[in-house]
Amino acid sequence: MTTARALYSMVTWAAQPLLRRKLRRRAAAEPGYAVAVGERFGRYPQPIDSLVLHSSTDPLGQFVWIHAVSLGETRAAAILLAELRAQLPGMRLLLTHGTATGRAEGEKLLQAGDVQVWLPWDTQGAVLRFLRQFRPAIGILMETEVWPNLVAACRRRGVPLVLANARFNEHSLRKARRVSPLARPAYGALAAVYAQTEDDADRLHAIGAQVHGVFGNLKFDVVPDVAQLELGRAWRVQALRPVAMLASSREGEEALWLDAIRAWSTSRTDAAQPVQWLIVPRHPQRFDAVQQLLEAAGLTVSRRSTWSLLPEPADVWLGDSLGEMALYYGMADVALLGGSFAPLGGQNLIEAAACGCPVVLGPHTFNFAEAAELACAAGAAQRVPDLTAGVAQAVQLVRDPAQQAAASERATRFARQHRGAARATVRELLQLVRRRTVGRFEDSDV
Predict the structure, then answer these.
(1) Helix/strand/coil (H, E, C) string of the chain?
(2) Which of 35, 137, 236, 261 has a CB 3.0–4.6 Å from the CB of 62, allowing a cystine?
């Protein structure tokens, strides 16, 4: 063990009481953080016999482990998992998460014989207990999550650990270089990395990762929920006004939106029909706060959770549900992309495109830089300097049906043209497993 990792291990071990306190605080707003806290420290109520096959067709005989830290990664994992199940009928899934929203979304992916737990805190003891408990055949980390002790333990115990759908922006590279004695061995010890873009691959290679392929973004392979999409479109048709959405908004952006709406209303000189606004906050713990903010500004609010057959009339519709983005994109004629108007890196625009919803982007899209540039080049998205310009652009688009229909078609075509990452990733994963001797684990210390 290197000196850097030894020091890191001491710090993570000493920080456990702080983690417990943080979980208690988070649980006050999100009760999901109070669930199975012992799992965070590698403590499980009973052993799992991972060597008993869920199905005789399972060629591995052990768990296929996928780690999806939060909501976005879990949705990407769902796309990969569908292809994995097609290629490995009867496989047993071990699904881990770091956030309550990720775990709630992940529950929808489970089948008989699957297991869902928290990823353990990155102490040597917790990681070792996790691997002894579940003995996965392979580990798949989604997008960004690389932990030094976890990677080292998997390598020592013969568990091939890969980073799939990997994204690694300049900010991530700078952070990794600041802790290079920890980051470089961790990335270098991964069995393989499958990057979203060539730029991601270059940055990952610079920090020592073995990049085995550049396959694009798994989220292009998303198939929107047909029932949700049709319901959303039906509600849009029945709406009295064109619908513009602030999608996956982050803290501070609703206040920016209010300022932008006031500026747009003040400058408007025509008497054209106004727009129906729909706001869908990214994080569910903020639903109440967003409603309070809007009502304090004098706006009426109708929440999705109160609707029965149709949305209720209000100045703003508030999307306060999880797992219904296809419904909301179906309702919207255009979407302003949350996270891109505050310096937060933007949210995923691919699902909007797959639903045929044109997107207006702010200046901050470094988390999905290539997808954003490709979408703009294809006419599936438009970039504006700030939210005031974004509101004006969105209103202009929805008040021109021909322009909106053309933008919707470009968005759908853009999403279709970039599919295929799931199949390419699973092909490489299966080849990796076949090259390894599966099922031979040693109980040596990390």
Answers:
(1) CCHHHHHHHHHHHHCHHHHHHHHHHHHHHCHHHHCCHHHHHCCCCCCCCCCCCCCCCCCCCCEEEEECCCHHHHHHHHHHHHHHHHHCCCCEEEEEECCHHHHHHHHHHCCCCCEEEECCCCCHHHHHHHHHHHCCCEEEEECCCCCHHHHHHHHHCCCCEEEEEECCCHHHHHHHHHCHHHHHHHHHCCCEEEECCHHHHHHHHHCCCCEEEECCCHHHHCCCCHHHHHHHHHHHHHCCCCEEEEEEECCCHHHHHHHHHHHHHHHCCCCCCCCEEEEEECCHHHHHHHHHHHHHCCCCEEEHHHCCCCCCCCCEEECCCCCCHHHHHHHCCEEEECCCCCCCCCCCCHHHHHCCCCEEECCCCHHHHHHHHHHHHHCCEEECCCHHHHHHHHHHHHCCHHHHHHHHHHHHHHHHHCCCHHHHHHHHHHHHHHHCCCCCCCCCCC
(2) 137
